[in-house]
Design brief:
The protein has eleven helices and 14 strands. By secondary structure, it is an alpha/beta fold.
Length: 353
């Protein structure tokens, strides 16, 4: 298969499909790389959302993906910020048109459809990027560095908490939210980045046992769940998630307990290093507190950093940090958790079909 030629003589051109809640982060991230990146089109089936995005960006607007792909907007990459369950079909259409795909999380709501996305992009010779911007948070990067330096020694237990609040009005505002086919629940939507962080930092995951419950929201999927995992290196982990925290978002955290170190990144969205202690000092420790930051959004500030890697990849200057294959890892864990909750048993990885 012939690899696409690097784009060096002009900015990388992006088209954004889906002008809802997360679109602002993508628009601002592209604007942050002016000169190397350019937004050339926006797309949404809702007239009011499309009109607002066109007014904000000044670029061409399209009411459907088909219309965008048939246009002369000359995009290099199509960004999918649509409901998760639509990503596979849309990604396959974009790949068939010969364009690269950048998918928001999760890349799909079904594992076989996620694999279909990977195959479609591979066969078309285009790139598939999956957004995992929390990996690039300064706080998370500090922990990843400490793990790679071996400062924790053997890691015994890792715990993730996502204690957020999503009122019924949040789900009612968009009928796809909380649906199994288009969204999933607290694990698949709100906690998918945190599942990815656990696997990326201390994985891979060997097996999963989970419970889910729909306790207070009128949705198909779960508003609360707990997941226990056994890691390949022998340590254990847990992920505890709820969208019912009173009265507002409380915590998005990961705690890692090892034989020679203990670290907790907390805040509402892993934005504060709350505990940092190791048996042996290191020069990096002096800069730890500077990694913490305030944020009014659970999305953090990682989108511009993620786009930097996408741009460098398409310019031939780097490799994709999170491609389709990497995106499948957290999706597989999520599907295993839902199978476990449904069947009441432990589910081993990799999944067997």
């Amino acid at each position: 298969m012939r690899l696409p030629d690097p784009i060096l003589d002009r900015p990388i051109r992006f088209a954004l499909v889906g002008c809802g809640r997360i679109s602002k982060n993508h628009i601002e991230a592209i604007q942050a790389h002016a000169g190397r990146a350019e937004l050339v089109a926006v797309c949404d089936h809702k007239p009011e959302s499309l009109a607002a995005a066109v007014a904000t960006t000044g670029v061409a607007g399209f009411a459907s993906l088909d219309a965008l792909l048939a246009s002369d907007c000359a995009a290099d990459v199509v960004v999918l910020a649509t409901p998760s369950g639509l990503h596979p079909q849309q990604a396959c259409a974009v790949a068939a048109a010969g364009l690269h795909v950048l998918s928001e999380k999760p890349m799909a709501t079904k594992f076989d459809e996620g694999m279909a996305m990977v195959r479609a992009c591979r066969d078309a010779g285009v790139k598939l990027f999956v957004v995992k911007q929390n990996r690039l948070n300064a706080t998370v990067q500090r922990v990843k560095q400490a793990i790679e330096q071996g400062r924790f020694g053997r890691i015994y237990l890792s715990t993730v908490n996502v204690f957020w609040s999503r009122p019924q009005s949040y789900y009612d505002a968009a009928p796809w939210r909380g649906r199994w086919d288009l969204d999933g629940g607290a694990f698949m939507n709100q906690a998918s980045h945190y599942v990815d962080l656990l696997d990326w930092l201390v994985g891979p995951v060997d097996s999963v046992h989970a419970y889910t419950a729909t306790l207070a929201r009128d949705i198909e999927a779960e508003d609360t769940g707990v997941m226990s995992v056994r890691l390949r290196h022998g340590g254990l982990g847990s992920i505890n998630v709820t969208m019912l925290t009173f009265p507002q978002n409380l915590e998005g955290s990961i705690t890692i307990l090892g034989e020679k170190g203990t670290v907790k990144i907390g805040g509402t969205a892993v934005n504060k290093i709350e505990h940092w202690q190791f048996a042996e000092p290191h020069p990096d420790d002096a800069a730890v507190q500077a990694a913490s930051y305030d944020t009014g959004s659970v999305y953090g500030f990682g989108h511009p950093l993620y786009y930097d890697n996408v741009i460098k990849t398409l310019r031939g200057e780097a490799s994709a940090q999170v491609d389709g294959y990497e995106g499948l890892r957290s999706l597989e864990i999520l599907i295993a958790a839902y199978r476990s909750a449904r069947d009441g048993q432990r589910v081993g990885l990799p999944l067997v079909f």
